[in-house]
Amino acid sequence: MSNALKEYLDFCQNRVERALDARLPGENILPQKLHQAMRYSTLDGGKRMRPMLTYCTGKTLGVAPEALDGPACAVEFIHVYSLIHDDLPAMDDDDLRRGKATCHVAFDEATAILTGDALQALAFETLANDPSITASAENRLKMISVLTKASGSQGMVGGQAIDLQSVGTSLTLPELENMHIHKTGALIRASVNMATLAKADIDPDVAKKLDNYAKCIGLSFQVKDDILDEESDTATLGKTQGKDKDNNKPTYPALLGMDGAKQKAQELHELALDNLSIFGSEADLLRDLSLYIIQRDH
After folding, report:
1. Segment of 30-44, 167-181, 231-245 carrying the highest mean pLDDT
2. Per-residue DSSP letter, 226
3. Which has the closest alpha carbon to 237: 245, 229, 246?
């Protein structure tokens, strides 16, 4: 990771942590247990990749980070809700997330379901009402639409449904990519697209190139996750290593082999860079972030 990227990602992580803390209900506000679970699951953990993408895209376009706190928090609330529900016994039945007990283990299953529900609602409340968002009313509404579609049956939830239906089956490469374009890629694209909507009068061609970039890194992120699930360890990952393989889920290494999966990640990185060719040095953080995604160890 370049020094410039490390410094900016540290800045983004610290900024979004403070922003999340400010927007979450206090743990002493009724219902206390629910609010404690929301804060437990959201704060002090995770790479914050999606908020980082929102801030890095904004920096490329000259949008101040203050105007992106709302979208960055909204996409992270959706992401955390999805992790809580993904870990439930009815889904992946996992007991470790971000290096600590999953929400249903730390609290209980019913509280975990409600915590995910509440975080989903908070995401859209943030986009609708957050005073830090300076985009026009029309673009604020578009942000809500983008995140709604990315979260629902045509996005993340649809991808999760396909994932559950695919356990123990063999998928073709297009079928596997389609699943992850929805399950993982949709929120990553939303992270970038909400930042472009914060830019007044953005050139549609520029917005399209950034969307294509996001689609590429959304897939490369999942390819790398599949690789790490086999090559890394539980302590480094902060979640149970080998879980997908043990559950007989379709993965890129299973389909392409480990060398083929690594080559696929590199190809997606190069495609991501091609879509940034219209930019100069102002997009270097996005370029470095694409490289970091395929080189990370957790």
Report:
1. 30-44
2. H
3. 229
283 pLDDT higher than 90? yes
Query: In this structure, is the dihedral angle defined by the CA atoms of residues 274, 278, 280 and 285, taken in order, positive or negative?
Result: negative
Q: What are phi and psi of 63, to 5 degrees?
A: -95, 130
Distance CA 16, CA 9 (A): 10
Q: No. of H helices and E strands in the chain?
A: 15, 2
Question: Concatenated DSSP letters for 64-117?
Answer: -GGGGHHHHHHHHHHHHHHHHHHTSTTTT--SEETTEE-HHHHS-HHHHHHHHH
What are phi and psi for residue 101, nearest 5 degrees?
-60, 140
For residue 123, what are its two tokens? 């995401």
The pTM of this model reads 0.92
pLDDT at residue 188, as a whole number: 96
The CA angle 292-160-186, to the nearest 5 degrees, is 50
Identify the weakest region by mean pLDDT among 42-46, 219-223, 267-271: 42-46
Q: How many CB atoms lie within 10 A of CB 247?
A: 12
Average pLDDT over residues 156-176: 91
Measuring CA to CA, which residue among 99, 84, 112 is closest to residue 46?
99
Which letter, b or e, does each residue of 133-154 get, where b requires 16 or more Cβ atoms within 10 Å of its Cβ? Answer: bebeeebbebbbebbbebbeee
Residue 45 is predicted with a pLDDT of 80
Among candidate residues 120, 117, 113, the one with its CA nearest the CA of residue 91: 113
Asked whether 45 and 123 are in contact (CB, 8 A), the reply is: no
pLDDT level of residue 245 (50, 70, 90 thresholds): low
- Give SS3 for 155: coil
Predicted confidence band at 47 (pLDDT cuts at 50, 70, 90)?
confident
**What tokens appear for 207 in the block?**
């917005």
Cα-atom radius of gyration of the chain, to the nearest Å? 18
